[in-house]
Design brief:
Layout: H1 8-18, E1 83-87, H2 92-99, E2 106-110, E3 113-116, E4 121-124, E5 129-131, E6 148-151, E7 162-165, E8 167-177, E9 184-187, E10 190-200, E11 212-217, E12 220-225, E13 228-230, E14 235-240, E15 243-248, E16 251-253, E17 257-262, E18 265-270, E19 273-275, E20 279-284, E21 294-299, E22 302-304, H3 319-322, E23 328-333, E24 336-341, E25 344-346, E26 351-356, E27 378-383, E28 386-387, H4 406-420, E29 429-431, E30 449-452, E31 464-466, H5 469-477, H6 481-487, E32 489-491
Parallel strand pairs: 1-2, 2-5, 3-6, 4-7, 5-8, 6-8, 7-9, 8-10, 9-11, 10-12, 10-13, 11-14, 12-15, 13-16, 14-17, 15-18, 16-19, 17-20, 18-21, 19-22, 20-23, 21-24, 22-25, 23-26, 24-27, 25-28, 26-29, 27-30, 29-31
Antiparallel strand pairs: 31-32
Helix pairs in contact: 1-4, 4-6, 5-6
Length: 514
């Protein structure tokens, strides 16, 4: 039985708050600042259609992207002196003393058990490896005979757990518990591997929890493999402002955002589980960041039951994440050349997949200059996935807040009226209908969103909705629910302009992974 619970009375109360539906954007990285706006003109083209497709190959680490030389090959420990430093619980101060003077190409071997730190473990050296005895299991805040847990419960305020800048950094087989800020932060680094690492905060749903679990940012050639992230107040697993990354075989539960790919070029996201977050797996660009995200391949992930109430701090978290309605499976925003295939969506209360324009969060094109005017979403290929159902029937868990989460409130308001017209659930694919290039509305699919060969629940009639958000939102905020609903357009999965062949050149990232 569908759970649409909004009433006309609650919708009327929301209308007074919806305003112009302008979400204020800020960077996920506290240190980023927007550039001067300048007078850069707006591109009046159509879709990217592959113009950002790279020929640069990839790293020497196992990303599944072949490498033919360049920056990732400029540091190696081969032929250099190496050292291994071994520590046991109780030697935390010795560890802190050593990391301040590490020689390059050093391995830090941590024994099983619990290590308690008062400050971040700060690495500023190349060729450093940190190894534990195992990451343990969810909820384990102390180490066992087969796990290593780094505890930061009493560490200095606003400190990270691991804080790394360097080339050829690897961390594996340990857990980071209760970091004050980010659990594992790796910034401005090259050739980064995180393998079998668990990041966790002891209590769920606390906006005072650290923002990020695994957080490689402003980096190049990143691998996150067989990792786990729980209870982050922003994103459990994050890759941002990065070129070449793989996130695979990992689990993100109970975070605001499970897995987040932001302002990143060339990413392969495969075989992960994003469940019980506010939003499961997201791909987006933000304004003011220099990398224009492109070529993101999302394959064989499970994105289900992402209905956790949004507990991000409005003050401390990125506003993009704090404004996501609970029950969002996946959203793609200001992104291009994104392929979603082999994935499973189910029981995401608000919606399964949304494709949104960056102009929804920042309407001034000049603020997008740093990323090459990267506000437009285009060339999104969603094919051969499974949509099991149970989604789209309880937007934002019915806890609507038009000031903090206006997009969810607007969708809920529209579908309140839509239910009277026989549309009882939000469709599996939601497009905001915002076309930054000004095509006439007679162009049904101007930004080339393809939705093909997907398995849908029995009895599905409409699978895609074009919200025509600018027109419908204006009507709804003016109190005209019927007029707003009339602006929306609903399409079957086949036989429409969305039943298309993808984009060219096609993505090949990950094809050579065995």
């Amino acid at each position: 039985m569908p759970r649409l619970q909004w009433t006309r009375a609650s919708s009327a109360a929301l209308l007074a708050l919806l305003g112009a539906l302008s979400l204020t954007a800020c960077s996920d990285d506290d240190d980023d600042k927007k550039p001067d706006a300048g007078s850069q003109p707006v591109d009046a083209g159509t879709t990217d259609a592959g113009t950002d497709a790279g020929t640069d190959a990839g790293p020497p680490v196992d990303t599944g992207i072949p490498w033919d030389g360049g920056s990732a090959g400029d540091f190696s420990c081969q032929g250099k002196a190496t050292a291994t430093l071994t520590f046991a619980p109780g030697q935390e101060q010795e560890i802190q003393n050593q990391v301040n003077t590490l020689a390059e190409c050093t391995t830090i071997q941590l024994a099983a058990g619990t290590f308690t730190f008062k400050n971040a473990i700060t690495i500023r050296q190349n060729g450093i490896t940190i190894k534990g005895a195992g990451k343990g299991v969810k909820g384990e805040g102390t180490g066992t005979a087969s796990s290593t847990v780094l505890v930061f419960t009493t560490a200095a305020a606003n400190s990270n757990g691991l804080d790394v800048v360097g080339k050829r950094f690897e961390v594996s087989d340990l857990a980071v518990w209760n970091a004050k800020k980010d659990a594992v932060r790796v910034e401005s680094s090259v050739d980064v591997v995180m393998r079998r690492v668990r990041t966790e905060w002891a209590e769920a749903d606390k906006e005072s929890n650290g923002k990020y679990g695994l957080y490689p940012v402003k980096s190049k050639y990143v691998v996150i493999d067989e990792c786990e992230a729980y209870n982050a107040a922003d994103a459990g697993i994050y890759v941002g402002q990065t070129e070449y990354a793989i996130v695979r075989n990992s689990v993100a539960l109970q975070n605001v955002a499970g897995i987040e790919i932001e302002n990143t070029k060339y990413a392969y996201v495969i075989g992960n589980t994003a469940r019980d977050n506010t939003t499961g797996l997201v791909v987006f660009d933000l304004p003011g960041n220099p990398i224009k995200g492109t070529d993101i391949r999302v394959v064989n992930n499970i994105i289900t039951d992402n209905n956790r109430n949004n507990f991000a701090s409005v003050a401390a978290s990125s506003s993009t994440v704090s404004q996501v309605p609970a029950g969002t499976g996946t959203f793609i925003l200001a992104s291009r050349r994104v392929e979603l295939t082999g994935n499973t969506w189910e029981n995401n209360n608000s919606l399964d997949v949304a494709v949104l324009s960056g102009l929804i969060i920042e309407q001034d094109p000049a603020q997008w200059v740093a990323g090459g005017l990267n506000f437009a979403s285009a060339d999104i290929n969603i094919h051969d996935n499974v949509f099991k159902g149970g989604s789209g029937d309880n937007v934002d868990n019915g806890k609507l807040d038009a000031q903090r989460r206006p997009l969810g409130a607007l969708v809920a308001t529209l579908y309140t009226f839509g239910e009277t017209q026989g549309t009882r659930q939000v469709e599996h694919l939601v497009w905001d209908g915002v076309d930054p290039f000004g095509h006439p509305r007679t162009d049904v699919n101007p930004i080339n969103i393809c939705f093909t060969k997907n398995t849908l629940p029995a009895g599905t009639t409409t699978a895609i909705v074009d919200l025509d958000l600018l027109a419908a939102g204006t009507a709804v905020t003016g109190g005209d629910l019927a007029g707003g609903w009339a602006k929306t357009r609903h399409y079957a999965a086949t036989g429409t302009a969305f039943d298309c062949a993808g984009f060219s050149p096609a993505l090949t990232i990950g094809d050579n992974i065995k």
